[in-house]
Hints:
By secondary structure, the protein is mainly alpha-helical. 66% of the residues lie in helices and 5% in strands.
Amino acid sequence: MMATRTKKIVMATILGTLAIFIWGGFSHTVLLSGVGFDPLPNEEVVLPTLRDNISKRGLYFFPGRTFANKSEDDDIKWMQKFKTGPAGILVYRPIGGDPFSVSKLSIQFVSNLLSVLIAILLVWQINMRYWRRVGSVTLLGCLSCAAVSSIYWNWYEFPTTFFIAQLIDMVVGFFIVGLIVSKLVPYTGSSNPNY
């Protein structure tokens, strides 16, 4: 019995990870490709300026400020600059690269694997019928957007369309994982599911 349970958990892990990885590839490159992104206006002018002035890879915000050793006058000046604009953030790499590199795909796969393992731990502990278990895992997708994507939308003003695309991606992805792991992972409690 223990060997059968272990096989089911391993199978759920493999199938769930492959499913969410494939779904993520489809949603990001086909279904929701580019949602919330706009091309940089005047790229031929802006890119040389960036190249000439920013040498380090990083996350930049403007108007800039230091957070250490700041005075009240610094805060007032920064607030005025922020209010009058422009203001924003920039994720920057001075040298490009492969947008679908092996390292990026590997990190995504490991991230998906960890997400599926969390879903399996959840499903393993809840004593409910199949569709309620699926619904519980689907809520993990909602949780990820409520906990992370909403912060980017609210504080950093990521476009609403980007936020909605992330919500669709996460909810559908975790729904698919829920279908798989809820079917394969047995409940380990002492009583039978009754609701």
